[in-house]
Amino acid sequence: xxxxxxxxxxLSGVGSGIDWQSMLTQLTxxxxxxxxxxxxxxTTYNSKLAAWQTFGSTISAxxxxxxxxxxxxxFDLTSASLSSSSSTAAASLLSxxxxxxxxxGSYQIVVTNQAQVEKLASNSFSSESNALxxxxxxxxNGQAVQLQSTDTLQNLSSKINLLDNGSSATGVTASIMxxxxxxxxxxxxxxxxxxxxxxxxxxxxxxxxxxxxxxGTGTVLKNSVAGGAQSDSFTSASTSVEALLGTDxxxxxxxxTINGKQASIDLSDNLNTIASTLxxxxxxxxxxxxxxxxxxxxxxxxxxxxSWTDSNNVLQALGVVQGxxxxxxxxxxSIANTTDGSTPITAxxxxxxxxxxxxxxxxxxxxxxGTLHDGTAATSTDFAIxxxxxxxxxxxxxxxxxxxxxxxxxxxxxxxxxxxxxxxSQLSLNLKSTLTDPGGNAGVLGFGSFxxxxxxxxxxxxxxxNAAFSVDGMSxxxxxxxxxxxxxxxxxxxxxxxxxxxxxxxVNRDTQGIESKINTFISAYNASISYVDTxxxxxxxTQTTGGPLFGDNTLKxxxxxxxxxxxxxxxxxxxxxxxxxxxxxxxxxxxxLNTSTFENALATNYTGVVSLFSDSGSSTNAAFQYAGxxxxxxSGTYAMSVSQLSGTNQTLAGTINNQTASGNGNYLTLNDTxxxxxGLSVLFTGSTVPSSSTFTFTRGIASLLAxxxxxxxxxxxxxxxxxxxxxxxxxxxxTTKITDMQNNINQKMDTMKTEFEDMNTAVAQMQQTxxxxxxxxxxx
Length: 780
Hints:
By secondary structure, this protein is α+β, with helices and mostly antiparallel strands. It is built from 14 helices and 43 strands. The strands form 12 sheets. Strands 36-43-38-39-40-41-42-37 form an 8-stranded antiparallel sheet, with no helix packed on it. The protein has a 5-stranded antiparallel sheet with strand order 1-31-3-27-28, with no helix packed on it. Strands 7-8-4-26 form a 4-stranded antiparallel sheet, covered by helices on one side. α11 packs across α12. The radius of gyration is 47 Å and the shape is extended.
């Protein structure tokens, strides 16, 4: 009988059937449960922080609404209404706005002239992009513009506009206007309205402005004064005029004749030197200065200036004279003649080359007739046309026939005659062509109807003008259509003009505006109380609170303080409480406004309503008037005394609440942080040292709330700010604690993961060993 021994080397159950990853996940979840209370606490603190921040915004709104009423000026609201004396609507003539300095009143206003900007125009040019071929310097409102021969209208416009920038902007805008299908003009427009308009001067010896067409013939005084003339304003009397104008290098100089006396002027000199030069030549001249605020300007003044010559434009560059811009009076033909149907004729064009005139024959002529400046008939003249006769020849003949006139062509090819005699002109012109070609192929030649005499050239498209108007019969002017100062606290915007219409302006207390500010105050207060009440509610059915600040004693205390503030008695008159002005506290703890009661209080006791809300003061001596207070000044009655009146080399001296006050003119102010009257400022209007008096300072309800809400919302020490800071600190501490614990859990789980992985490795090795031993035993 034999015996067999069996050895079991199986590792079944070791390392098999176990999900180590799932086990690790479960262990992590168990560990993380320890964080749940902290996360819940953090969520609670986050909710509290958000709640305090929302309440802070609510308090900020109440602070703004209270601050708007805490001073008497907050009630200085007025409104303006307009009515017209005619069918012209008042709103088409003017509008009016008021500020806090306006007072009740009625005013009669007549607008006779609106202010308007000045516009100057050049000659017409055939292109805006072709070179003008004009050189020289022009001075636009005191700043030089250099013209090169290659400059176009577009270039010149850009150069002028570049100077209308920055602190020394010229105030002039240049633009190009197309005045016909083929011609263009440069237009200069003042940026602001008023009679000052645009200063446009030649800054070089050539008449650049005349060539451009901004000036006519001759010059006129630019800045007339009683008994003489003066230059433009310059910022310095000791700096070269060329440097001040920006024309350095021009070396502009020349001999001028003033009242028959000659003097040589060089603009590289300063005003003082030029005045001395003129004086040495027997021309009475001096430099006069004028200071406005912190700015001093200087002008060259020439006495008794009645005649002058200025061949090199030195007087013009100084602004003593300027080019003549009087409208040119004359007549213009209605037909624009051409050489080919589109190209305008010129003075050099032969008359036989005028488009439409086919065949020239002996006897062809143009009969020139009309009336002279004074209305007498001009000598009728037959102007013969030959094959070589030019349009220029015809223009010369017209000038010979009519005397002191200039005959020329417009850019369109029309004949134009300008009358240079002064006074009312009765000039008229008629040109009648007679063509005698026996073959009947003469064609047509005409220059059109010249019509009535009138302005044929306007250098000034629109004259700069001041507004002219009257208030209660007093005539006034303004350089702009926005007028301040004519009526205290009222801004008038002149929108139209009608000398036959009187606009009645009524300035009244703006009851609706004041009521709106009161309603804003009430709404802001109610929002603050409502927020607290909502936080403090509790639903017993659901066992939930109204908000995260439920039961917070600080919030409860704020509510009580707000309620105490609006229940304060202020003043000693008939309006002591909010209820006296129609503002009551309802059963819902909210403020409610009785509109009719409030409006009646405003109408019958305006001062009382103002004192109910804002800081105020009164004294047993009417010479003491409330001037101001700080947030630390406490309501109370304080002794007042004056020991010295203000006067030459001395200031007011006295005491407030028996403490020495600082004097400033007629004002006394207490600066003593330990005294309840600290910050109180009182104006003394008396002329003799008064006997001892008392002064009662009272904080209005809006002032009390403004100060209290300031304390609540102070960015450093405010109650709400401190609550937010403390809550944020708790959140930060919890965040740190949660982070630390999470790091520990993560570290622990990482360790366990490593251990599990090591165990798996060991089991795998054991299983390999088992497999090996099993195979060896099987071979025995």
